[in-house]
Structures are given as structure tokens and as C-alpha cells.
Amino acid sequence: MTIPQRFLSLDVFRGLTVAGMILVNNPGSWDYVYPPLDHAHWHGCTPTDLVFPFFLFAVGNAMSFSLPRYQEQGHKAALQKILKRSLLIFLIGLFLNWFPFFRWNEDGQLVFRSLGQLRILGVLPRIALCYGLAGLIIHFSGDRRSFMIAGCVLLAYWWLLLAFGQGDPYSLEGYAGLRLDKWVLGEQHLYRGEGVPFDPEGLLSTLPATCNVIFGYLAGRYIQQKGKDYPMLCGLLVTGCLLVFAGLCWNLVFPINKKIWTSSYVLYTVGIALLLLSVLMYAIEFRGWRRAGSVFEVFGKNPLFIYVMSGVLVKLYLLVRTLAGQNLYGWLYEHIFRPVWGNYPGSLAFAVFHVCLFWALGWWMDKKKVYIRV
């Protein structure tokens, strides 16, 4: 078997995404978040709204190296690898949703977290479902057909929202996926970040999100097949510009929206991912500025483990309470970061501190050659 050439820029891209996820998920206070570090209220796209689709794109990049190896082991072995990995990531996501198994009730008592109200979906379950669906599509269809299937999925998703939506099909109340999630999962198992039962990582919007993985895979294959040369880099750059333009045009009739993961959002985010990847490849692979990306490379070597541990730490913060009844998360911000830096800068400093904390964990693991794969 020919070992595909490794590109440090792909690892840096993945690490940059993990660092971004930790940064935007851990502000000192959600009341003091700079607008670029917060999600768009509904339609639109902020820098924060790029982080999750970038991660899915990076999952596809990594798949472009691993899936051919699986396929060389035979059809059955490849299917087992894809399904096993999908199931493991999904179960880890369920574990993280349930952890730490206890919560504080309104009376200030520590009670067991009932499985009857466990959120089933979320970031890791979506990654698992998208990885599994994309892997199966690519395995059975091949590279060229998977590109056409992804295009059909994006068009079909648009049609589904128009055909089964109510009132404004792109609003929270009229979104067809909301009714599907309530019917399949039940309201008690949905996220309530919007004040009502609604999961931004719902079942229906997983279909277009899968296309981010497919496009990431195709980008990885293209880079491997073309090799490190300027025509390859030019191809990435031009394709990125065209996809951004196509996404903005589609936005006129099908608004860019992360929470329902619209098809225009997929094109727009994949386009920006290609542009960023082009810049990283030029700087690292062509100009040799490897040291500039080495910081983020650490995150990219244990991405899933570092992300899970960041979630575990935050949940432990929320479980531990001071004598005054304040959770440790709020106490750290109120007594350490805000007094020193103020509201908004202190909230950002809290997030940056945790990025540095988990960079240190990743650095230690890399130094000890500890790489946790699922």
C-alpha cells in the first residue's frame, strides 16, 4: 500500500478548530461575550458559527486518509470500522450529555440526573452520525458519485423544508425538523437553549451537515492526488471562492443559518474552510513557516479527547459549589478574572485560559507520545 503524503497544514486546521471550539464554549459569563464569539441569533453567520462546520470538514479530511486503508482490508472490514467508530463517538456523546450524573435541583439538593430527560443529540452525536453517513456514502458510491449525492442532499433538504414547513419554513416555529425531533425523540430529550424544546443538532439538519464531511473528504483526496504544487493550491483557492459566492447567492432565497444548518450555510462554510486551508497550506507547506502552526498542531493530535475533556471539566465546575451556593465556574470568573480584567475582557480571558490549559494537556500527551484514537 502506498502511504499518502501527510500535510501538516491539515493537522493545524484541525487543531485550530478544536481550539476555537474550546474558546467559544467557555466564556467566563454568557452575559459578556464579544459578538464575534457568539452565535448568530438566527439567520446569519458569525466567526463562531464557522467552528462546528470546520470541525466536520476536518473529520472528512481525516477520513480521506483512513477510509482507503479500511477499504483495502475488504468490504466487510470497512463497514465494521465505519459503524464501530460512529457508535463509539455517539456513546461518548451520550456519556458527556449525562455526566456528571448528578445535578442541583431548585431546593439546592444534589439529585440523580434522570435518563428520562437526557439530551440524546448534541455535538458529538452529530459528529458520529455525520461521520457514519458520509463514510457509508463514500464507501458505496466512490468519490465522484459522493459529490453528486451531496449536491442532491442539499437540494432535497431545501425541498423538505419548503414542503413540510409551516408558515415561515425557515423560522423556529415553522421548521420541519422541529416536529420530526419531537416525534422521534420526544420533547424531554431535546435541548432548550432557545427557551423551548429545540435541538440545533437535530435529526433532519444532520443530512446537510453530513455534506460538510463529504466535502472535507473530497478536499483531502484532491490534495493527496494532486500533491504539493501551485496548481493544486490554486484549485483549492478558486473552489473556495466559488462556494462562498454560491452560498451568498443561495442565501437570498434560503438564508444562511447554523441552527437549522441550511444548504446555503453548508456551501458558505465549506468555501471559507477551503480558503483558510489554502492560506495554511501556502504558509506551512509552501513557505515552510511550520513553527507558526505548531501551537495548533498539538490540539490536532488528540482532537476528540481534548474536546471531551474540556466538556468534562466544565460540567465538574458546575457541579462543585461554594459555601455561598455559587458554582465553581461562576466563582472563578467573579473572583479571579472579572476583578482583574473587567466584564468582557475578563470573560474572554477565562476562555483563553482554558484554551491554554487544554493546550498544555495536549502538549504533555504529545511529548509522552500518547494518542487516543476512537
From TrEMBL:
Keywords: Membrane, Transmembrane, Transmembrane helix. InterPro entries: HGSNAT_cat. Coiled coil: none annotated. The chain crosses the membrane at residues 12-30, 50-70, 82-100, 120-140, 147-165, 202-220, 232-253, 265-284, 304-324, 344-364. The keyword Secreted does not apply. Pfam families: HGSNAT_cat. Residues 6-157 form the Heparan-alpha-glucosaminide N-acetyltransferase catalytic domain. This is DUF5009 domain-containing protein.
